[in-house]
Amino acid sequence: MTESRSRNFVQALALGLEPEWRRLPEQVRAEDADLFRQAVEEPADVLTFTYTSIGIRAGCDLLLWRLAPSLEELEEAAALVLRSGLGRWMRVVTSLVGIIQPSQYVKRPTPQEQSLFAGERSRYLVVYPFTKTAEWYLMGKDVRQGIMNEHIRLGHQYPQVRQLLANSFGLTDHDFLVAYETDDLAAWSNLVRDMRGIESRRWTAADSPIVAAVHRPLAEALAMLGAPFHPAAQRLAG
Question: How far from the centroid of its chain's Cα atoms is residue 94's Cα?
C-alpha cells in the first residue's frame, strides 16, 4: 500500500453460521475452513481482526473488524469471504461502516481516542451505530461543544476503555459507527450506565444493535465454529 492510499474506511461485519455446516464431514469442514482463512487474509490493503460472539449475540458468530482505503475494497473483501469455503454457509447479520475523520469536538485526541487498529488488541470489542436527533444538529456549535465536553470528561474517567468514532453520514441509516475496546467489561458497563445520566443522552435517537465480541486469532475462531484440526490452522496459530 502506498502512503497516498491511507486506510480510513472501517467496517464491522457480523456473520452468522448456518448450523448445518457443523454436521458436515470432518474433511469437508477442514477444507472449507482453510479456504475461508485464505479469503479473510488475501486482500493486501484490508486490515482485519477477528472476533467471536457465539451464543452472545443471537445469530452472530463471527465479527470481522476491518480497515481499508475504500468502500469498494471492503465490499470486494466481503464478497470474497462469502463465496469461499465456510463463507458459503454464512449470512451477514449486520454490517456497520464508517469513515474515520477528525472529531469536531475533540481538539487533542489522547491515546484513548485513537484508532483501534494500532497496538495490542484488548480482549473485548463492542461496536454499535448511533444517531443524534434533528434537534441536536439545529443547536449552535458552542452549545453542542459544551454538552460534549461533559461527555468527554466522563469517558476519560475510564482509561481502560479505548474508543473509535467513525462518520456514517450518507452511508448507512445511522450517523456514526462507534467501537470500544477493553479488557474490563465491568468498567465498560459502568461507563455506559454513567453515560445514561448526562446531558448528551437527551439527544440520542438510536444506538442499536450492539455487538459485543471476544478477540480471537482466526485459527482459534474457526475451531470454535466447528472446524477440525488442519495443518494450515496450526501454522496460523503458531
Answer: 11
